[in-house]
Design a protein that fits this description.
mainly alpha; MetI-like fold; 77% helix; 0% strand; globular
């Protein structure tokens, strides 16, 4: 009896120690994040004004703005969503509901899981060879969106498949028993039930796409743009590239511009995520 009491006491001690370590790690991460946000806001909040938001980049820090990068980021992300989300969800539906469970499907699943962990620079090299050179799209808006679509599609496919798997089998069986076809079952039952979980995966994927710089630099996105894209074949830049360009300069005024650009990028990210979360909660109800 004494042995079991000591064992239980030791287990409680380990549990308490683990909770303390986990809480310390969480507090450390939150403190680092708060310090970074405080530093960014302290440096950049004074630079945010109408002139900064509506002006193009300039060699003079006090006249420089983020209009080209801000519009480019929004357009690239929206195009990426339009391309990657339908294809990713469609691929997940096929693999989960239509594809046969054999060695070939397992091979595809393994490769999709591996692609989700590939460094983003590899997708940039793929986009450079496939979209920029082979398809001759040049350093255009559509080439950047297609490259980012390849980057986030594995995440969307994996999350959508997991969402479809979480639907109880009885839903499918009841739908088939009422005479519904497989597509009617998917469209009217499986997708509405699993869509909130699918949106969670889309939120994570889009958040990654917003901040990616390496793939777009690799395909040749510009760092100094004084115009807005007028079609899908136009050259472009994005906010992370513009911020990187400013932070690499020695003048302190450009560093303040970079901090202000980070604030705007955070606001765009939070706005897109908030929209997706609102849609997820609405569909959940």
């Amino acid at each position: 009896m004494e042995h079991y009491r000591r064992h239980a006491l030791k287990q409680r001690l380990y549990d308490t120690l683990f909770q303390v370590v986990a809480l310390a790690g969480l507090l450390f991460a939150v403190m680092v994040l708060m310090w970074l946000l405080y530093t960014v806001f302290e440096d950049g909040i004074g630079r945010l004004n109408k002139q900064f938001l509506t002006s193009f980049p300039s060699r003079r820090a006090e006249e420089a703005g983020i209009l080209a990068g801000m519009v480019g980021s929004v357009l690239v992300v929206l195009l990426t969503i339009v391309i990657a989300v339908p294809l990713g969800i469609g691929a997940a539906i096929y693999l989960e509901e239509y594809g046969r469970k054999n060695w070939f499907s397992r091979f595809i699943e393994l490769n999709i899981a591996n692609l989700a962990g590939v460094p983003s620079i590899v997708y940039g090299l793929l986009g450079l060879g496939l979209f920029v050179r082979w398809m001759q799209l040049d350093r255009s808006l559509i080439a950047g969106a297609l490259t980012l679509s390849l980057l986030i599609m594995p995440v969307i496919i994996i999350s959508a498949r997991e969402a479809l798997r979480s639907v109880p089998p009885g839903i499918r069986e009841a739908s088939f028993a009422m005479g519904a076809t497989r597509w009617q079952t998917i469209w009217h039952h499986l997708l509405p039930i699993s869509f909130p979980s699918i949106l969670t995966g889309i939120i994570l994927a889009v958040s990654r796409a917003i901040g990616e710089t390496a793939p777009l630099i690799t395909i040749g996105a510009l760092t100094f743009v004084t115009f807005l894209p007028d079609d899908l074949r136009s050259p472009f830049t994005i906010l992370p590239i513009q911020i990187f360009n400013w932070i690499s300069r020695p003048q302190a005024a450009f560093h303040e511009n970079a901090a202000a650009g980070i604030i705007v990028l955070l606001c765009i990210t939070l706005l897109l995520n908030a929209t997706a979360i609102y849609l997820r909660n609405r569909f959940s109800r």
